[in-house]
Design goal:
- The protein has helices spanning 5-18, 71-84, 88-97, 103-106, 130-135, 142-153, 179-196, 206-212, 219-222, 244-249, 254-278; strands spanning 114-115, 121-125, 162-165, 200-204, 226-230, 235-241.
- By secondary structure, it is an alpha/beta fold.
- The protein has a six-stranded mixed sheet, with helices on both faces.
- The longest helix is centred in the C-terminal third of the chain and has 25 residues, at 254-278.
- The radius of gyration is 21 Å and the shape is globular.
- It binds uracil.
- Residues 125-129, 132, 138-139, 143, 165, 245 line the site of uracil.
Amino acid sequence: MSSDSAPAARDLIAFYLETGVDCALEDEPVDRLTARDRPVVAPAGASSVPARQPPTRAVAAAPRGAIAPPPEIAIESAREAARTAPSLDVLRTLLDSFEGCALKFTASRLVFADGNPQARLMFVGEAPGRDEDIEGLPFVGRSGQLLNRMIAAIGLKRGDVYIANVIPWRPPGNRTPTPQETQICLPFIRRQIELVNPDVLVTLGNPSTQTLLQTREGIMKTRGRWFDYDTGTRTIRAMATFHPAYLLRSPSYKRMAWLDLRAIAKALEGTALEQSTST
Ligand code: URA
């Protein structure tokens, strides 16, 4: 690098960091302008959905050779894989070998879950961040530390609850997952909830709430309210609350999160009582 180009390179790296790009996807730089990586333009009259597309510019973000199928095929195969998983261990294995979601190819590893698979309380967040991608466990960064304190506030430990995300791979640079990526991962998290079979489900933040509780309302309206959630085998109670990352940015909402946690603790006591009187 010449001394003239050094400031430009520094500016570029500073720009990348500011926009959330904090990891390299490949060891070697890729010249996206060469013919090999140019977007492929289908000839006039060709089918609009080829069975397996060659690397377009969007797909080229993944390591070469890794191509996710079209979303509708990926969703169907996710449903099929999730449906057939008889246990959490099998579900994890199926997810680990699932190639239908492009996020798999940019993440370092699968972030499946943490905590107790027999828990009565399950938390579901949006998607792993950088720390989670490194450790392979959900909620281990700053938000995770706050989540641990939220769990402790109702007298439980992290090991007493089960924690997962709607999306089990880190989106590059922590970008928002696309609706297609969410739909592809949805059958897996739904099956994961069914297999854990908690008494109470807590969705953390807007994306997880809207996806799992099938609402279009924002978190300010949904938080603190009880929803029915059909696991596939029974109906359980579900509550949305603020995402810990949001609480770190807006600590004044911790008071409301505390109210939500009180209601969650009370519901757990209630279901424990129901279970002890029915046996
Ligand atoms: N945010 C999430 O939604 N999930 C994590 O695992 C970490 C941060």
